[in-house]
Amino acid sequence: MTEPLFGRLTLIGIGLIGSSIALAAKRHGLVSEISIQTRSKKTLERAIALGLGDTYSLDPAEAAKVADLIIVCVPVGASEEVAQQIAPSLKPGAIISDVGSVKSSVVQQMRPHLPNGIHFVPAHPIAGTEHSGPDAGFAELFENRWCILTPEEGTDKAAVDKLAAFWRAIGANVEVMSPEHHDLVLAITSHIPHLIAYNIVGTAADMEENVRQEVIKFSASGFRDFTRIAASDPTMWRDIFLHNKDAVLEMLGRFTEDLTSLQRAIRRGDGDTLFELFTRTRAIRRNILDAGQDTAVPDFGRTPAAKGHGTTEKNGA
Ligand SMILES: NC(=O)C1=CN([C@@H]2O[C@H](COP(=O)(O)OP(=O)(O)OC[C@H]3O[C@@H](n4cnc5c(N)ncnc54)[C@H](O)[C@@H]3O)[C@@H](O)[C@H]2O)C=CC1
Ligand SMILES: O=C(O)C(=O)Cc1ccc(O)cc1
Where is this region: Disordered (predicted)? Predict the structure, then answer.
């Protein structure tokens, strides 16, 4: 049996991601003790019934005490409140991390409250489902998925390496980048796709009753996939859009321009434009599959041809 990487791991928030980390850390023997905190008694009782940890608390300061690694697993809008609550009881030398889907805002919310001598290494596992709560977790969630770390410059390298080793040990591939770059990439690869799903399902839901029934009845796989994504947790996704506002609006601007050019191509009967785009997007899907994980960040924007698909860009204007 190898030595655990950490002594006490404290998980603040025990939903899908927190419970999956608990199960994976336990399975791989990565920590000697797991302490769980969440703010609702009902959720804490589920965590106890599921046997996710060794100690349980409703008090974040109590749970964070003597922890070597604290991972905050709450909706991104609650990050500042949690940082304020745990800051006074953090052990010098502890690593504090999170799993939020947005990084710049989490850094801005948490950093000012963290005392010197604490290693702050924000993280985002790009792995999840539309389910939430402690019952939704499973130990394999992070296997062969990316986990992006966004430490500030000057963060202790040993702390970053140790957190990276933790994520690798539960099956993830680790990459390090700036919070700003993370937020821009995730806006197009994750946040806008969710917004599109929420919007298309909302549009269908607003249709007249008889059409709505047919939408459900004849739901082809495209729409069904959107309904899965649009069933994701409303609190979590509200917070993502409120806290990644600039990057989402920037990407939404480009998306809207491209959508307008597709609209024009359809109106004009311009089959070449449609065919050329659909051929290019098919190749992107193949790239993703060839990369061996369907969560791999696609090669968007690295080649001039992949930038936008408006008719003006196609014509080189
Ligand atoms: N669900 C997904 O697919 C993924 C989610 N994430 C990120 O992980 C984080 C957690 O998401 P999930 O586990 O899916 O959510 P979840 O809804 O399953 O669990 C969230 C947990 O946080 C607790 N909580 C909420 N506010 C709190 C507070 N102020 N103090 C203590 N506990 C609090 C809730 O009671 C619940 O136990 C979010 O920031 C999300 O952006 C990251 C990757 C994938
Ligand atoms: O269920 C899906 O399709 C997801 O996209 C899961 C997911 C949700 C949020 C993240 O920050 C990362 C992954």
Answer: 295-317
Ligand 2 atom nearest to CA at 128: 6
> d(Cα 74, Cα 239) in Å, to the nearest integer?
10
How high is the pLDDT of residue 1? 53
Residue closest by Cα to atom 11 of ligand 2: 101
Q: What's the predicted TM-score (pTM) here?
A: 0.91
Residues 173, 185 within the same domain: no
Do residues 114 and 3 make contact, with C-beta atoms less than 8 angstroms apart? no
Q: Which domain holds residue 233?
A: 181-314
Residue 126: nearest ligand to its CA?
2
| CATH number, position 242 | 1.10.3660.10
- 282 occurs within a structural domain: yes
Ligand nearest to the CA of 15: 1
Ligand 2 close to Cβ of residue 190 (< 6 A): yes
Q: For residue 144, report the phi and psi dihedrals to the nearest 5 degrees.
A: 60, 30
CATH number of the domain where residue 118 is located? 3.40.50.720
59 ligand 1 Cβ < 6 A: no
| pLDDT tier, 303 (very low <50, low <70, confident <90, very high otherwise) | very low
State which of 117, 142, 177 marks the end of a domain: 177
Q: Which atom of ligand 2 is nearest to the CA of 126?
A: 12
Indicate the top mutation candidate among 74, 110, 190 to test ligand 1's pocket, ranked by most ligand atoms within 8 A of CB: 74
